[in-house]
Amino acid sequence: MDGVHDMGGMDGFGRVEPESNEPVFHAPWEGRVLAMQRSLGYAGAWPIDASRFAQEQLPPRTYLSASYYQRWALAMERNLVERGYAGADELSAGHALRGGKPFARKLTPDLVKDGKEGMTRGSFYRQAQAPARFRPGDRVRTKNIHPPTHTRLPRYARGRTGVIELVHGCNVFPDTMAIDKGDNPQWLYTVAFEAKELWGPDADPTLKVSIDAFEPYLEPA
Amino acid sequence: MTEHDQHEGSSELSETQLRVRALETVLTEKGYIDPAALDLIIEAYETKIGPHTGARVVAKAWRDPAFKRALLDDGSKAVRALGHESRVGDHLVAVENTPARHNMVVCTLCSCYPWDVLGLPPVWYKSAPYRSRAVKDPRGVLAEFGIKLPASTEIRVWDSTAETRFLVLPMRPRGTEGWSEERLAQLITRDAMIGTGLPKRPEEVA
Question: B18: which of A216, B73, B80, B120 lies 20 to 30 Å off by Cα?
Fold first, then answer.
């Protein structure tokens, strides 16, 4: 979707302001949100793509004014309610009013201590369904697509010509995962663009920008 | 609540804290999550998982040419072989800075970041100014970090739009010949591994 989350190249947000000696969390609730998300991910509640899509669907004003972990919490609430894991009435009440919808597994302290299950990202690789269409060095053009749902092709890199630099193997396709249409594995490539292709003739001539693009985003150039 | 209010200073955020507490209570009562597991996850990010892991990887690459080749060839495999407490996922790519090219990492669409080797991302990395400008005006962004690169240096920005995660392998500072990995690691900052900083100079560490 063409949302405010897709920020690459926008002007007007001001300076980058690094914070010296930044703490890991700025408030205890931030850590709780992160750890809840981790636990629900382990349980198999929904894929990370659905978390991202839920954030993207927040009203733009909310998206821009909420902090990172506030957005996570809002997206988590949305997914819990939409998927029937919790009712809006329960979230308002602050207590379960009904039994839960069971998950296949639960993240326990032992698993976290073990460091193997809870703390490691899963693999997004999948068995290839067909040979890769492109090779390093191939010139490709990104498609000019504007799906109303989740996509990982940023606006600034649509309809642009670049060069395949890396082939990452076959990965889960976020565009379908986010809307519960399966992992639909696709070849994933790093595609590099000259800055002037993205930003016009006044762009920094020493700049190249790459995105990681799934094969359905690309056509031969 | 106090700590939280002190930081953000708004009643709206106290509301956030209450809302998050409600969320945790509901999920716990429904049997979905175990609060003791949450405690351990938080503790791991506060005490174990952080940029020191990435710094050790970089320091080793500076000293050990075979490891450096392995790292650039398959970042996940090379880092996993070191046996860090934070196991590394499948999708780590290390990108090397050279006198001709400087690498910088961003995620314009959300805030993807190599948690396994750098810990949780700083607020600025997740902020709209960085996400919007890194791909268009990286030299301007670098200037805000106090970094000025030669005009001829190519700047390569990696937008993390999939699950691939990028770790910048900065250039080893001069004057560090013969240094141990532990000593070298002290030069390697988080920002140097994102590409918004450079390693410290030898005289900056004891």
Answer: B120
Distances (CA, A) of B125 to A81, B122, B198: 30, 6, 16
Torsion-angle region of residue B53: left (phi > 0), alpha (psi -120 to 50) or beta? alpha
pTM of the model: 0.95
Rounded Cα–Cα distance for residues B105 and B125 (Å): 9
CATH 2.30.30.50 residue ranges for chain A: 139-220
Fold of A28-113: Cyclin A; domain 1 (1.10.472)
What ipTM was reported for this prediction? 0.97
Q: Are A186 and A127 a contacting pair, CB within 8 Å? A: no
3-state secondary structure of B20: helix
Judge contact between A198 and A216, C-beta under 8 A.
no
In B19-78, the residues whose Cβ lies within 8 Å of chain A are 19-27, 29-34, 36-42, 44-46, 49-50
pLDDT tens digits along A88-134: 999 999 999 999 998 999 999 999 987 766 677 778 999 998 999 99
Rounded alpha-carbon distances, angstroms, from residue B85 to A165, B63, B79, B81, B82: 32, 22, 11, 11, 9
Query: Which two three-digit tokens encode residue A119?
Result: 């703390």
Can you name the CATH fold of A139-220?
Answer: SH3 type barrels. (2.30.30)
Measure B178 CA to nearest chain A CA, in Å: 30
Domain ranges in chain A with CATH number 1.10.472.20: 28-113
